[in-house]
Design goal:
Blueprint (H helix, E strand, L loop, with lengths): L10 E5 L4 E7 L5 E9 H11 L5 E5 L4 H8 L5 E5 L1 H7 L7 H13 L11 H34 L14 H5 L5 H31 L9 H5 L6 H11 L8 H8 L3 E6 L2 E7 L5 H17 L1 H14 L1 H22 L8 H19 L5 H12 L7 E4 L2 E4 L5 H8 L2
Parallel strand pairs: 1-4, 4-5
Antiparallel strand pairs: 1-2, 2-3, 6-7, 8-9
Length: 412
């Protein structure tokens, strides 16, 4: 049996603390060819051009500035691998840990072909994830401010006025509360902070709507909007977390990536499953659970599924199971670019009409809202029988479906 040969060249590893890097390299026999060397970040670009070779294979752990380094290095060497930091620590756990040792361990793992790599997201995915993370940070700050203000009311047994407690019009009521000097200062500053956060969050929400009309997201968003519980914002959060659906050959792998899969213990004659792993992207789990709560409240199919599971699992575990099932549907509709067999055409049409209003004429390439909705329904192969969309007491007329869409519907 022939032993597979590793390509010639050096195996270079980077350990990346905050202000400097440690670089080391080994050869195919795992002998040190570049002893660990500390390089300041400010000097690293020049060092790379002078010392790295086109035949080098390089590895670095995922850190805060990973993608900036990746974009810089991938032009200079043969390959760049981004290591999964959690799995590398499991492989290379040691009682003696220094930057120099860690860097050499990384290089030797790369030479042995034992690096657990992470997927390198393309630029549109990175930008969307940055946008989503910024919006989530601001929303978290807003929630914290509101909680602090609520706590003051509870502490003093104060009854708020009717309506939106945090609307700008309520500022006079808040600042007029009979509190001590310290609490009055805290209320004034928190309300000012809350007022400043509102337009920032709205700006990010508008940008998400704008990005949703750009490639590669514009072709995928309608397939998520047809599912109950999904609007543009949480659809974009999910798409950003998934990145590229084709990297998941099965729905099971996507579920595992989300952390919604059950943990498994199997050893000898003992086998059992436990709670969900939660080893995945946190934002995926959050939006899927939120979508699941909406789905079980408004959609007959998901409401029946939830009722069946709740009696056996309890409410919390049942909603997680619904979220997992929703994610399986997400995999199918995105992978196959098809409509969901449980989709409610009238509900989908209403969601699409509200999206059309969000986009305005420029975002619809000059189409009327009705014509734009009809095109999206035709893409999903849904609602060929719909002639209008009822919102409140108003019926918004829809153009007739295209000939090809009508023929496809008739052949189903």
């Amino acid at each position: 049996m022939n032993t597979p040969t590793r390509p010639a060249g050096r195996f270079v590893a980077l350990d990346v603390p905050k202000s400097y890097l440690v670089v080391a390299a080994v050869d195919t026999a795992q002998q040190i060819v570049l002893h660990p060397k500390r390089v300041l970040l400010a000097e690293f670009a020049a060092w790379c051009r002078q010392h790295l070779r086109p035949t080098d294979q390089l590895v670095l752990e995922a850190t805060l500035n990973t993608w900036q380094l990746y974009d810089q290095l991938v032009l200079l060497v043969a390959t760049v691998t981004v290591a999964n930091p959690l799995q590398v620590k499991l492989i290379a756990s040691s009682r003696v840990k220094t930057d120099n040792r860690d860097t050499l361990v990384l290089a030797r793992l790369l030479a042995a072909g034992l690096i657990p790599a992470v997927w390198v997201p393309p630029l549109p995915v990175r930008e969307l994830r940055t946008l989503v993370a910024q919006r989530e940070r601001l929303i978290r700050q807003r929630t914290q401010v509101r909680n602090r203000l609520h706590a003051i009311l509870l502490a003093h047994g104060l009854v708020p006025p009717p309506g939106d407690l945090f609307a700008p019009a309520q500022r006079a009521w808040w600042t007029g509360l009979e509190l001590n000097v310290t609490e009055r200062l805290a209320v004034r500053q928190d309300f000012t902070l809350l007022t400043s956060l509102t337009p920032l969050i709205a700006e990010l929400a508008a940008e998400l709507v704008h990005v949703s009309q750009q490639a590669p997201w514009a072709a995928q968003v309608p397939y998520l909007l047809q599912l109950p519980g999904f609007q543009v914002h949480n659809a974009m959060v999910l798409l950003g977390a998934i990145g590229d659906i084709t990297r998941f050959p099965s729905a099971r792998q996507l579920v595992g990536y989300s952390g919604l899969g059950a943990s498994v213990h199997r050893s000898g004659q003992v086998a059992y499953t436990g709670r969900i792993t939660k080893q995945g992207r946190r934002e995926m789990r959050r939006v899927l659970v939120e979508a699941a709560w909406t789905a079980v409240g408004c959609h007959p199919y998901w409401k029946a599924q939830f009722a069946r599971l709740r009696g056996r699992l309890g409410e919390n575990k049942a909603i997680v199971a619904i979220a997992r099932k929703l994610l399986v549907v997400v995999w199918h509709v995105l992978t196959r670019q098809e409509s969901d067999k449980h989709a409610d055409a009238a509900l989908v049409a209403r969601k699409l009409l509200r999206r059309a209003w969000q986009l305005k004429a420029a975002g619809r390439q000059g189409q009327s809202a009705g014509a734009w909705v009809r095109d999206e329904l035709d893409r999903l192969n849904l609602g060929q029988e719909l002639t209008g969309i009822t919102i409140g007491k108003v019926v918004h007329r829809l153009p007739a479906p295209t000939t090809s869409a009508a023929a496809s519907s008739a052949g189903k």
